[in-house]
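dumping the sequnces here before i forget
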Amino acid sequence: MTDDRKFLRLRVIAPLLILLFAIFLLPGASLYYSYSGGKSCTKCHEIWQPYRDWHESAHRNIACSECHGDVLTLDAGFHLKNIRQLAAHLRGKIPEQVRLKTDDVLQIEKRCAKCHREEYASWSAGPHSATYAKIFLSSDHNQKTLLMDDCFRCHSMHFQGSIRDLVTPVNKQGPWRLIDSRLADQPAIPCLTCHQLHRHGDPLSRPQTKPDDAGPHEEIARPSLALFDRREQDYVSLDRLPLPQMYEGTRLVKISPDQRQALCYQCHAPEANAQIGSGDDRTPIGVHEGLSCFACHEKHGQTTRASCSTCHPQLSNCGINVETMDTTFKSVKSPHNVHAVKCIDCHTKGVPKRKAGL
Amino acid sequence: MQPTLRLNRRAFLQAALTAAAAAGAGVACSRNGSPWRFFTLDQARTLASMVDQIIPPDQDAGAVWAGVVNYIDRQLCGPYQALQETYRYGLGAVDQTSQSNYGKVFADLQSHQQIELLHRLEEGKAPSGAWKQLSSAEFFGYVVDHTMQGFYGDPRHGGNREGVSWKMLNLPYPPIRGRVRSDLSKPRSG
Amino acid sequence: MSLKHVNAVIVGSGAGGGVVAKELAEAGRSVVLLERGKWFTPFDERKDDLRNQRTCVLGNAFGPDERNPRVYVDASGHEHVISPTHGAYSNNAACVGGGTLSYGAMAWRFMERDFHLRSTYGAVDGSTLDDWPITYADLEPYYEKAEWEIGVSGDDSNNIFRAPRKRPLPMPPLPPTREHQILNPAARRLGLHPFDIPMLRNSVPYNVACEVDAKCGTHNTVIPKAIETGNCELRCECIVREILTSDSGRAAGVAYYDSDGRLQEQSADVVVVSCAAIESARLLLNSTSRLFPNGLGNRYDWVGRNLQGHAYTGAIGLFDHETYDDLGPGASIAVCDFNHGNLGFVSGGMLANEFIRLPYQFASRTAAGIPRWGAGHKDFVRRYYRSSISVMGPMQEMPVFDSRVQVDPKVKDHWGIPVARLSGHRHQNDLLGTNFMSAKAEAWLKEAGAATVIRSGPISLDGPSGGQHQAGTCRMGNDPKTSVVDKYCRVHEVDNLYVIDGSVHPNNGGFNPVLTIMAIAYYASANLVKTRKGMGAT
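..and the predicted 3d for all of it:
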């Protein structure tokens, strides 16, 4: 056979094979997967463990394809990745643990919104939905503080690479740009930062009517709450995360036992000396000492709007409208900052005795 | 999460082992019909009894619960590949020694008998013809060292499940560690 | 295949090579910097208790890997082919930055007497101890340059034994740890002179540093600067086979295997060898030719001789109260009261509290009186992990002619290059000194209130020294018959070949040697730039 004919045959046969593959194999695979309820996925044993975890998780009724994408997609990248993984598998290069790549995390992110619309909208409106561009290209920040790998611990912990793989140049002069510009408008703290989807738990059921007062049996933390730890590339579940012992000088500060705060403390963390207000710590002291972060901050949006009125003026000691009495309560530098304000700050001549009944 | 202390020791060992084996299932480097990568079920059972005497469960979890068998199993298919024969031979010899001294395999011995036998292995005084290719002291040395690694090392290698040893040492993981903030001059809203 | 000719090719991008690259590139010389390892990021090798420079039970995080064996000859003459995780391998990180990527980053200046030990103490039996051809004063400006360019924090003003410095350190010390607060008053009560250890670590914003903006090495300071000039090309994963020589006996360049395993030749006006004591000696010895049948610089059989490191010694104290506060890096306070002037032996070393011990390191430590396993061992670890302080120090070793690096006649590495063969023994003085220092560490810990103190056992004199502090194999001296390089680090017999790393130290101080290696690199580079004007500017 001449080279020409060989080439011709290749030109005809190759597209034909691809076509056949697309018409028969892909839908077949899709059917196969959905028919077996995900079990067939585990035939390839890299994903045996995630499958097992998913099967016991709150998301057990959601099919693999809902989050990981369906094989019928026209996205070439999806198929290429699968083919690469298949090739690696056939060559015996079997990873000890399968992990999501930066792109996978962002893909899944969007699919969360299909069901969790309210939460997603709230998060989207809040500060935790900040994009890569907003966090890493802020010249205000970058001129004063050098970008470093430790930034990833709290911002874009799922990014698979080093700071020099994300931003260039790594200096204080700039101008800075993202090496992969597609990340610019992607969220740097996605759902999968604080939620582990394959974690053991019961499916969410929404009661028709919310009880007026939350009794001791009401669930306050979903089983999915967990921190994605970049160092181990794995989740640490909420019950294992530490709550700190905080100090004001030498005084041990009382903090709320609300375990959900352990997630907040991982990033809104004090310096090693555990002093109130050091580093990024926002532990309340003074009149608000002992309150949980969630007493005021909405969990997905972090908004505090109307949070004062949740408790005030009923519990207020002076009956003044606390939201307007001092407009500096939001400023960290103000002595009246809501996290630190004390009775003595206003009652400079001495704190009056509590009236009975308040 | 603490091991359930209501279970008796042997039942607990069995349960923990099964869980650990299930967690490690899959990436086998030998085909022996076992859920482990390298060990046979019997080998894993013997090793489990040894490592749980080296770091026994008390108010804190022991080596088996922490996944030390899984750790060793995994390393024998990785960086410790060269020690496969040592483990195969050594674990067989432990059971042989146990059989000839007590008439039972190691895992079926009473706890105090296990400790007694391990001391003799450590001192190289195990009276048995089982240790011709390898000294019992050398093998025991490997097991002790690898147990310490699996219990106190990073969870990413298959042991120290849920960071249990770090928690025992009051080193909560991940640590709460903020940064010294450089002044960004703009006051941030609280 | 030959590549574009350059002014200088530098082999090795560690403490020495990184500095030389920057100095030459900034002076307008074209430079190729060859590195056998990779340029690691903090994401490549995430912190790991079982894979790091100090604990490599599951491998060396920063290389070298299994493709790089060595031969070790034990005290009874038996040869062992060993891998880089073996204790006798004397591993040093093989990557951009070399040891400075993974080091503890203590930034010591040697003391004045360290440069003329022979004149101070006289000849030492069984040792090749000799004075340096340079003095502390020659290096002082370059110590200062290293401190300010790479970045050192600390405060040694209470160290009355220190050599005079013209300029203070650029950064204040790190905040004192709890161990510091316990050890400081105890040392003062004993009449010692404790102070904050100088460290190549940012205590305030200073240089671009590591993952957490703390530790500075050459890979994140001078090497990026060298590349920024546009005159320096860094090539990673390049394994240099030999230094090529011309018919006239000058260095012509190097032959190396690139990252794809292809043999390349890089010609240059000047060749600089900065591979650390073992690999630098190996490269010179592997570069044989008609004119240099025993290897380069080895006419008098001095290349590879006098391999040194540090005999580490001290004690660990167990306390009734917590001593741990998780403030990195742990090491914080030191004394230099025992570096010199001790009775009964030559020199000595500094003593400092140790870096934070990882749980596995603590648990796998064995000592008489501590159960090795079982319930007793678990109790011990649980009780004392947060209630112990370790004080250790590096003893200045006496150079021994028979402690040496050779190239093995049989064993070759993955690229077919003969590997380093390590043999020899330590000097008796090392044993006397370490026993003395352990006793001093014990006394310090007892004074600090330790309920129990466990001293390091006596060191073994078998086998050569080395380790991360390896030094001495290409001694600096004025006499070509008893040294390898001259006072400017130039190989005596090849006028365009330099060795710039710890190899040139005639003795290695009672200190971590990195700042001295950096200072010598600045010093030698300054001379190189000044004297080699012929080397065309780009």
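The first helix of chain B runs from residue 9 to 24.
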